[in-house]
Each structure stands twice: as structure tokens, then as C-alpha cells.
């Protein structure tokens, strides 16, 4: 049986936007694929909490699909958007 190809490659960058009760994000993978989603959190949630939620979702998917652990270093683009640079980390 042929192994099914994952729907996206290993993520390399995330863009997170501020929102009203949902925080949209997009990501780009190493193979130029990508995806998007939303995290349901209040608009007054701490940015760090939203970033941690997005990171946890993407890390779980990446581990499941590729067997790789990732870490994200966030920086602010504007007052309502943030970019996360993703790096692979050794599996613990």
C-alpha cells in the first residue's frame, strides 16, 4: 500500500492576526504549501496565550504528519499582527 502524502510540508512561518473572538492565522511550509485556521479566544486575550495556542495546534499537526517537533520565535509586525519563525527541534 502506498503511503499517503501529508497535506502540507513542515511549516516555516506563521502569521497571526488580531481578531474579535477568533484570531486568524496562516502558515507557509518548506515545500511552498500552507494552510490557515482560527483560534477561538476573546479579543482581550493575552497575545502570548493566543500565540501558544496556535503553536500547540501546529506543533501537534507537524508531529503527527512529519514526526518532527517545532518551536516558534514570535515578533510583532504591527500592533495587530505577529509573525512566528519556525525551527525544527530534536524530538525529546
Commentary on this structure:
The protein has one helix at 47-66, and strands spanning 11-17, 23-29, 34-39, 69-78, 81-89. The protein is α+β, with helices and mostly antiparallel strands and 92 residues long. It has a five-stranded antiparallel β-sheet, covered by helices on one side.
Per-chain topology:
Elements: E1 11-17, E2 23-29, E3 34-39, H1 47-66, E4 69-78, E5 81-89
Antiparallel strand pairs: 1-2, 1-5, 2-3, 4-5
What are the main properties of this structure?
92 residues, alpha+beta, 5-stranded antiparallel β-sheet, 1 helix, 5 strands, 22% helix, 42% strand
* SSE pattern, N- to C-terminal: EEEHEE
Mean pLDDT: 92
> Could you say which structural class the secondary elements and strand pairing correspond to?
alpha+beta
Radius of gyration: 14 Å
Number of helices: 1
As residue ranges, the low-confidence spans are: none
Explain briefly what this protein structure is.
By secondary structure, the protein is of the alpha+beta class. The protein has one helix at 47-66, and strands at 11-17, 23-29, 34-39, 69-78, 81-89.
